[in-house]
Design brief:
binds (4S)-2,6-dioxohexahydropyrimidine-4-carboxylic acid; TIM Barrel; alpha/beta; about 350 residues; binds zinc ion; eight-stranded parallel sheet
């Protein structure tokens, strides 16, 4: 049986929600990861340091005592985020980044940025304090095809923004296209990207296999095979600009299986295991540790974790549903298997 032991990984992109939902999902992540960057798209969004620190307390209160898990908090950037708020966030030491959602791009993004020029005072302060900007890289204009939204965002928003703030640390979150990979590769060292398991493993055909597959619907949407391949190659390339961010995003089953379903794939139940499968499949299991446990921490200026985990190549059965508040969610690989599992 094949096993590998690696530095304990971190998840640099995670949605935990709040209340009973938070309590249902957080321990799936805490069982596998040492730390996670927590997305701020709650209702209402986490726009101040005070709100983020209160949310952090609720997260810590929901973590089982057996786990040592550190939530790395973020603020939700709006048109009105002030330089003063950035300073407060930076001085807290517990806020690690700001998240840029273009208004209307995805779940709970209504209060996001309407025009990137409106954020320039905040970005200036972020650059000064070394605070990274985490970008949901999609334009929202109805006249742009949904499959082109990442490429157009890079062209129209990210390129000018990166030029205006040359020292700003930027993470292009959950990249899905060759255009995204190329942009990051050609940028300076202060620009990196996270990669989700679904964007390594699935392409847009997986949205329609034998019928409509709402549980494979996330944003940015799955792309064509040549884009998936580019993302997969980036993940296994050993380039430190690309690191792990699951974008695990839980939604109650009835909000996915409906006439207008929510975007988001829940993968925290196999958070590291699914990447082990994806890397092993391409003969790149030796590249997993740096991608999952070194490059993200290095980019954020955090120490690498001291603990280790062991993964075993042994089939893990995935349940059809997982408890979610007083309801259930349908997890990634529902009712199927994952080729690797964590040694307990
Ligand atoms: O699929 C997604 N789900 N993409 C996002 O950007 C947000 C997330 C969510 O919060 O559900
Ligand atoms: Zn996300």
């Amino acid at each position: 049986m094949q096993t590998i032991t690696i530095t304990k990984p971190d998840d640099f992109h995670l949605h935990l929600r709040d209340g009973a939902a938070l309590e249902s999902v957080v321990n799936h992540t805490a069982a596998q990861f040492a730390r996670a960057i927590i997305m701020p798209n709650l209702k209402p969004p986490v726009v101040t340091t005070e709100l983020a620190l209160e949310y952090r307390d609720r997260i810590l209160a929901s973590v089982n005592k057996q786990y040592d898990f550190e939530p790395l908090m973020t603020l939700y950037l709006t048109d009105n985020t002030s330089a003063e708020e950035i300073k407060t966030a930076a001085e807290s030491k517990l806020i690690k980044a700001l998240k840029y959602y273009p208004a209307g791009a995805t779940t709970n993004s209504d209060q996001g940025v309407t025009d990137f020029k409106k954020t320039y005072a905040a970005l200036e302060a972020m650059m000064k304090h070394g605070m990274p900007l985490l970008v949901h890289g999609e334009v929202t204009n109805d006249d742009v095809d949904i499959f082109d939204r990442e490429a157009v965002f890079i062209d129209k928003v990210l390129t000018p923004l990166a030029k205006d703030f040359p020292e700003l640390k930027i993470v292009l979150e959950h990249i899905t296209t060759k255009a995204g990979v190329d942009f990051v590769l050609s940028a300076k060292e202060n620009i990196a990207a996270t990669i989700t398991p679904q964007h390594i493993l699935l392409n847009r055909n997986d949205l329609f296999k034998g019928g409509l597959r709402p549980h494979n619907y996330c944003l940015p949407i799955l792309k064509a095979e040549q884009d998936r391949k580019a993302v997969q190659q980036a993940a296994i390339s050993g380039n430190a600009k690309f690191f792990l961010g699951t974008d695990s995003a839980p939604h109650e089953r009835k909000n996915k299986e409906t006439g207008c379903g929510c975007a988001g794939i829940f993968s925290a139940h196999i958070g590291i295991e699914i990447y082990a499968e994806a890397f092993d499949e391409t003969g790149a299991i030796d590249k997993l540790e740096a991608f999952a446990s070194h490059y993200g921490a290095d980019f954020y200026g955090l120490p690498r974790n001291a603990d280790q985990i062991t993964l075993i190549k042994e089939e893990l059965s995935i349940p059809e549903t997982i408890a979610f508040g007083d309801s259930v969610l349908v997890p990634f690989r529902t009712g199927e298997t994952c080729a690797w599992q964590l040694k307990k």
